[in-house]
Amino acid sequence: MGPSRMLVLGPVASEYTRPMRCVWRSRGGTGLVLLGTALASAWPAEAAADTTTAPSPVAAGAPAGPGQAGCVDEELKQELVGGRHYRGVQERLFTKAFRHELSGMGGYYAGDLYSSSYLVGGAYTFHFSEDLGLEASFQLTRFRTAVTDSYERRYPQVQVEERTNRPGRLYFGHLVWSFAYGKLRWFNDGITRFDFNFAAGAGVTDDSTATGLTGSFGFGTKWYFGKWFAVRIDLRDHILKETLIGEEHLVNDILLTGGFSIFLPFGG
User: What would the pLDDT profile of 211-245 be if each residue is shown by its tens digit?
Assistant: First the structure.
């Protein structure tokens, strides 16, 4: 057997007067656990006088293990941990993973070739995780322009037969990525969770003048209330080719919408 090892504990001046338990294990496999009591005094003179008296250690067996030492005052630890208050921190009450989202939206359609018009529609989104979702949407608007009227006034001999004042339908699919999250505390009361997302996809603009697929991308934000309701704002850019009075144009149409969402199941 190797030589025995001992740990001598001396009193340490401290603002705490509770006893501290120290555990020591030897590296060679043989160890001693020494329990000592260190009394602290509020006055330095008394603390210095106490250092002349060494406590009587009590030895007890301890399991073998790597050399380590630790002093833990369990009551003090509970006091310190229990006294730490994290203001404004709550559990995540709203989850999106594997939930269905139904949305109603309305807003503003600003076209390159056409006059600005209303925009109404809805969307369904399935969330694969807290970050990714697949969205399918359908929207209605009206495509109209004053170009034909101006053309006829400038060239009276030319009569434009096709009028550009008709309804339009938008069928789109987007992959939505929520890239940033946040929480907002309202007047020292409740906390609202929100996120920002990026959407990219493609679809069809059905207005009899658009040709080919329409590319789409944009940003949005959602604000969550309770466990199943949210308010959303989206800004999308549609890139497509349109024909007006025999000429083809590559245009960027801007869509700004606001609306609400309901998440199923309701319980989260």
Answer: 779 999 999 999 999 899 999 999 999 999 887 76
Q: Which residues contact 41 (CB under 8 A, 6 or more apart)?
A: 13, 47, 50
- The token duo for 160 is 């434009």
Lowest mean pLDDT among 40-44, 122-126, 197-201, 225-229: 40-44
Q: Kindly list the domain boundaries of the chain, sorted by start residue.
A: 21-82, 100-264
Tokens found for residue 266: 């309701």
Q: Are 199 and 179 in contact (CB under 8 A)?
A: no
What's the CATH class of domain 100-264?
Answer: mainly beta
| Secondary structure (3-state) at 147 | helix
Peptide bond into 11 cis (omega under 30): no
The pairs formed by 33-39 with CB atoms below 8 angstroms and a separation of 24 or more are 33/59, 33/60, 33/61, 33/62, 34/6, 34/7, 34/8, 34/9, 34/58, 34/59, 35/60, 36/9, 38/9, 38/10, 38/11, 38/12, 38/14, 39/11
Neighbouring C-beta atoms of residue 33, cutoff 10 Å: 17
